[in-house]
Amino acid sequence: MNLREISGLIFIIGLGFLLGAVFKCLPYGEPITGVGQTITALAPIEVGTTNIVASVLLAYRGLDTLGELTVLFVAATAIGMVLGQRDPEISSQPEAGFILKTAANILFPFLIILGAYIILHGHLTPGGGFQGGAILAAAFFIPILATPASPFNHHISSLIEGFAGVAFIIIGLLALFGKGYFLAPLFGTGEVGHLFSAGSLPLLYLAVGLKVGAELAGLLARLQETEASD
Amino acid sequence: MNGIWLVALPLLGAFLLPIIYRHLPKKVGKWTGPFILLINLGIALELWRSIPVDSAQSIAMGGFPAPLGIIFYVDRLALLFVMLVVLGTLILWLGSELGRIREETLLLLLVGGSCGLALSGDLFNIYVFYEIVAVASYGLAASGKTGAGYAASLRFLILSALGSALLLLGIALIYAVTGTLNLAHLATLAPYMLNDIVGLSAFALMLIGLGVKAELFPVNTWVPEVYITAPARISALLGGIVSKLTLLIVLRFLVLIYADTDAPLLLLSLGVLGVLTGELAALRATDLRQVLAFSSIGQLGLVAIAFSIPGPDGVIAGVVLALHHALVKPALFMLTEAWGGHFKRLVGAAHVSLWGTLLFIVLVLSLVGIPPLPGFWAKLLLLKGAFATENVWYHTAIAVVLIATVIETAYFMRIVRLMFQQQSEPPIKPRLHELIPASTFAALLALSIVYVGTITKNMNEIAVKVADKKIYISNTFPVWHRDFKKNALTENVKIPNSPSSKEETQE
Q1: Is B139's CB within 8 Å of A77's CB?
Q2: Measured between CB atoms, which of A80, A84, A183 is closest to B62?
Q3: Could you give the ipTM of this predicted complex?
Q4: Given a cut of 60, is residue B485 above it in pLDDT?
Q5: What is the pLDDT of residue B206?
Q6: Which of residues 438-457 of B touch A (CB under 8 A)?
Q7: Would you say residue B301 has pLDDT above 90?
Q8: SS3 state of residue B451
Q9: Long-range contacts of the stretch B44-48 (C-beta < 8 A, 24+)
């Protein structure tokens, strides 16, 4: 161990100790200002979701979700810029074994259905656009792992990505024109617990799911294609 | 006009830009970005006109009232920074070749994120927009597409990711103590709940986290490397303009939450160390861009010192210093596109491009603070504010600022002398689309000399309003502000060591 490593270790231990001392002062588990409690009480009535997390993500803090979507988009764009062009030797890469290839074919429809289910039921059960989108991305990425030579259509993925992001903002702007507030829930709450309820929230989750799915799939495919370039 | 347009429009443009480039004629794509920025500038000007100086547009996102939902707080100070970012990006945009799809997308996202950062009145929302700005910055820093650029960008990413984690930890601490994220709500709670050891450590964590982008002292090691390897206009944008926004957030924290604590002294000491280390490093540097990078660390240290001065004096000094630096540094960076690299390449520059040399001299003199250039006026405001505090730490800071000014003069004059020497092998002539943005910034600087009276008056009004946290609270909670204790949300506030609060909650 040289001096640099030792000083780093001492720094980390010291920082941990300080943070521990600060955490010791925190009032865990006590209701404080009641913002959280108020939201938990109001969410089913005001927004109409049975999954409270969804109403916080899309209604009370919808702008944060738009921001998170944008962070993902920025990261994908930046990586696309750094990675550059498609590796020309990609088509000569060998296919995977029989088991992976067959499993990829069988899994594909099930993953699509599971992803779609989780996105569409985001306002009712745990899950939602981000989780479902990740599953959709997996559905499209597993075939690429099985046969690396098969082309991934970046055209379509970037189209879906762009229009899903635009849809999220347009829904927000429609609320701005209709109700006077950006990203206000539209169309009333409906009957709580039904598939068609919670107003415009399922639409927002659909946009999130499509965007996350297209973005992650495109990103993974690009990472795979350009692995060999410098 | 609703302030959300300032964020929604650039994001909409960024999502659509790759599609527009692919499916419409290339000309449409090329002008989409500048067009959106122009509209944004128009909206910002319209908001500036319609919002009186002592009020603000407080926008509840989704129609959920203040502490439950996210708030945008649009006041003149925030609009000033929005206009700075939009106008600066527009000028630098027109200075580059059009048609780089990914870079332009990232620029639009950077503008959208920066506008959100300036306008947001919610801690976590600030974090989200900070992330957008940070990630867009990594991408733009690597847009030179050189190996050195990638390496610099990666180191920037690692340091910045650490900073983001610390920022998030600080926000989490505040949320754990108070249970709310709304800045105005926090401002009403802070005297009871946040001005203790936990609150201050949260501030320290957030300051270090935000400090990565604001080039504050211990977390600015990425600065010289990134500004040398990135394209000049990106260095100009990141170093000159975007870096100021996070200091605006720090200012809001200080005014609203940590007004009567030792928190300003922490910012002051980091600022003083930044000024000292930045200027001393610039004295040793041998590369023009490195000098500008270190000098920008020093200048941001000055802004940090100014914002740490309590009251309106500090606000006006900091804002004026930030605006001045945001005009001068991008212009200087634009000139380095041709003149970057070792000083030796500058020898004889005056004989190649007299206009470029004159611009360089005027900008540098303003940066040092020679009257009648605006830099002098900005530094004077800082010294005046620091003197008025009657605190020995601020008086030490004055001495450091004066010493730093002498160092600054020394290294810049050394460069200027080189430019007038004769050289057999003349340096490259700056191209027109580098000179035009630089001249535009210089023209804005010249305008500010002419209108110095009006600007001072306006700034003074803004500074007085911004430094008063009651105005922020009453603009966010228009109904509550008279007796906000009666509201259901603040009734549950647990005030430590105060028996009367328990009686109130039992009612």
Answers
A1: yes
A2: A183
A3: 0.89
A4: no
A5: 92
A6: none
A7: yes
A8: coil
A9: B44/B6, B44/B79, B44/B82, B44/B83, B44/B86, B45/B83, B46/B1, B47/B1, B47/B3, B47/B6, B47/B74, B47/B79, B48/B76, B48/B79, B48/B83
User: Mean pLDDT, to the nearest integer, of B65-73?
Assistant: 85
Boundaries of every domain in chain B:
5-476, 477-507
Q: Which two tokens stand for residue B409?
A: 């003069």
Query: Residue A157 above 50 pLDDT?
Result: yes
Residue recorded with tokens 């290294």: B411
**For residue B181, how many C-alpha atoms fall within 13 Å in the half-sphere facing its CB?**
23
> Strands B71-74 and B57-60, how do they pair?
antiparallel
Print burial letters for A44-54: b (CB count within 10 Å at least 16), e (below 16). Answer: bebbbbbbbeb
Total domains present in chain A: 1
Q: Which of B38-52, B193-207, B335-349 has the lowest mean pLDDT?
A: B335-349
Q: Which band of pLDDT confidence, cut at 50, 70 and 90, is reported for residue A31?
A: low
Tell me the chain A residues in contact with residue B128 when contact means C-beta distances shorter than 8 Å: 63-64, 67-68, 71
The pLDDT of residue B99 = 66
Q: Is the pLDDT of residue B495 over 90?
A: no
Q: Tell me chain A's radius of gyration from C-alpha atoms.
A: 22
- The verdict on residue A7 lying in a domain is no
**Residue whose C-alpha is closest to residue A116's, from A217, A205, A215, A219:** A205
Measured CA to CA, the distance from residue A151 to residue B21 in angstroms comes to 22
Q: What is the full DSSP assignment across B210-250? A: HHTTTT-GGG-THHHHHHHHS-HHHHIIIIIIIHHHHHHHH
**Number of Cβ pairs closer than 8 Å across A and B?**
178
The Cα–Cα gap between A204 and A58 comes to 7
The pLDDT value recorded for residue B419 is 83
* Closest to A205 in 3D by CA, of A137, A129, A148: A129
